[in-house]
Each structure stands twice: as C-alpha cells, then as structure tokens.
Specification:
Alpha-Beta Plaits, Arc Repressor Mutant, subunit A, 3 domains, five-stranded mixed beta sheet, three-stranded antiparallel beta sheet, 12 helices, 8 strands, 14% strand
Amino acid sequence: MNALLQELQLILECKVELVGSNQLKPNKNQTIINGSNHMNLLVHRTLNPVETGLIQRLVESSSNLNPLGKLNILSDPNGYKSNDRSFKYPLRLWRILYRDSKEEVAEILKSSFRKDDIIHMNNNESVVIVTTDEITPYELLGVLESEALTSVKIIISSSIAHPCDLHKGYIDTIELSELGKHIKEKAQIIKYEEMLFPMFVSQLRRAEGLNLNSVAVGDSELELTAMVFLENNLNITETANKLFIHRNTLIYRLNKLENITGYDIRKFNDAINYYLSYLADQIK
C-alpha cells in the first residue's frame, strides 16, 4: 500500500483507500476527500470540516508521497512536466486489470517489481512502469492468479522512449484493452506489437470512415479456422495440428471460406484483405 495511505490510516485510525470519482458515493460513516484527475481518497469514518481540511492540506503538501499527483504522469498529457522521478528509457507500461484482492495484488506487484514504479489507478487497475526484466508477463499472470486468487489481464504498451509519451502509452493500453474484447476476448496478455493491425483499422475507421466489405460468414468454426490459419503463418500442417483436425478437413474449410467470401486466404494478398475486413467487422 502507498506510504501516504499508510500514514493517513495511522493518523485517522481507520481504513483509507484511493478510489475513482465515479466509483461510489460515501455513506454516513465515510468521507470523500477530493483529489486530482478524478481520483479521491475514501476515508472509512466521518470527518468534521476541520479534519477534512487538514487531511486535504497534508495530501497536497506531500508531493513525494501523493498518489493522487502520481497519477498525473499517465492521466495528464502534461503530467510528465511535474514528475520529479527520472525513469530509465526506453520503458513499457504494464496495465494490470483484476477483479478483486487489491491488497494481495499490490503486495505481489511490490515484490515482483522491486526496481520499478507501481501506480495503483483504482481498485481494479494498477500500472507498472517497467524498465527491467525481473519477471515476464506470463510469470506475473501465474503468480497473481495463484496467490491473489483473482482473474487478471495484462496489457503491455509499445516501447516508450521519452517522458512526453507516457500519457499516450497509457491511452494506447486502454484502447488495446477495448480492442481485445472484440479481437482477443479470451486473451489474458495483450501486447501492443501483436495488435498493430487492429489498432490501424480502428484508427482508420475513426479518422477516415473506413468501409470494407463484410466477410462475416455466420459460422464461428469457419472463422476460428481462418484466424488460427493466419496466426500460424498460412501453414496447413501447423494449423491442422493446432485445431486437432486432418489437413484435408482444413483444406475443405478453407475452400468453403473462399466460396463464401471470395478470398483464398492461402494466398498472401487475399489473407491480408480478409484479415482487414474481418477486423473491420469486429471493431464497432
């Protein structure tokens, strides 16, 4: 837990946590202390106006410990200008989403990233500014799920080479997360480099009103076959093994897909055109 939160809990003799401004409304036994960038402190007891003012000033004056201000690095395009930390570049942002067990997740992240900064955005999201290779995303996923007993998704940004790109990197991870719901629904680890095509299509749709012919076939098995074929570099044998089907069955499905869509995805150009059209179907 952040040092400032621990200090406040000792002073107030109650639980204090960081929450988003729209996450909840305090009950009669709680007090909200407004922070910056839509993040507030939730104090689990009623404070009088004098106490509230004192805590507010303590938070504002504790610049080195202030978790509300620390969020500026990611949430504010100009937040890097007031950042007093010097990071080692290039770096990546690991946006970690989880359902519950915030305290357990925080402890695991603290022990897993001893040299990296961790920013707890809210009760279900933490971002690690990763500059080292202490642990792989797959290792972290396994530790979090086995020890914190919570479902986890890890979204990894592109390589960030300059402080002014921290905000954009964070916004990219949010877009990657949304795209993942359509393109990689079951994926628990999403990397920027693996989503370049979906990001490209999404941005084109917003900026240029991209309009591609639909390749929806109304057959989930056929669409899955096409995606696995593309992921395995148009290799018949590897795709058949991955799908646990005979290669002749795979060829039958690819022929059927061609008859419906007009694309023979065994050919590179057709594969590209089909994939772009498929992404446009998926990204709304």
